[in-house]
Amino acid sequence: MIVSLLVHANKSRQLLSIQSGRWSGPEVVQRILATHRAFSGTFIVESVAAQAYISHFLRELGSIPVVDFKTGRKQMSLEWQVESLAAEMERGQWIIPSDAGKPNNAEVTTLLRDLLYYSPSAHTPDRVAAACFARWGAERGAQRAEFGRIGMFTR
Fold first, then answer.
1. Which residues lie closer than 8 Å to 59 by C-beta, 6 or more apart?
2. Which of 4, 7, 29, 26 is nearest to 17 (CA)?
3. CA 115 to chain CA mean position, Å
4. What span, in angstroms and rounded, lies between the C-alpha atoms of 100 and 113?
């Protein structure tokens, strides 16, 4: 799952793209490289369990800024991140691609559906988790004023 955001000067987050699929490790890395070529920015990588190898490969390449996100408790939990994402959306900080107010592609439609039916007691859907990690990266970048575009890979 790759979610790409553009962070505007007013800290609003514009959803640029969502990519999903069942990819091999090398294909994941190639997709991240292609996404970086398209949008630049920093990749936030969920670096727990099997995902840690992606962060390792990207660092070996040395051409893409990578920040690890280690899911944990409190502010590093997915529940906290989803709450933060929901608060930003409630404040109108997210720009979601649409045509006449309707999502303009299946990935966006699925993300919005997953958000609508999100339950903290169930598994966090991959697109929601990816958006949360990208949101976390956007917030981190906004605080340090060094990231413009944020790319993200998870699961």
1. 66
2. 4
3. 14
4. 18
Token pair listed for 69? 């996100």
Residue 15's beta-bridge partner residues?
5
Residue 83 is predicted with a pLDDT of: 95
Report how many domains make up the chain.
Answer: 1
pLDDT at 116: 94
pLDDT digits (tens, 9 = 90+) for 125-136: 999 999 999 999
Q: Residue 74 to residues 70, 78, 105, 144: CA-CA distances in angstroms?
A: 12, 9, 33, 21
Q: Which domain holds residue 58?
A: 2-153
- Tell the residue number behind the tokens 């944990």, with chain if given: 72
- Which of the residues in the chain have pLDDT under 50? 144-150, 154-155
Asked if 36 contacts 64 with a C-beta cutoff of 8 angstroms, the reply is: yes
**For position 142, what pLDDT does the model report?**
56
Rounded CA separation 44/65 (Å): 9
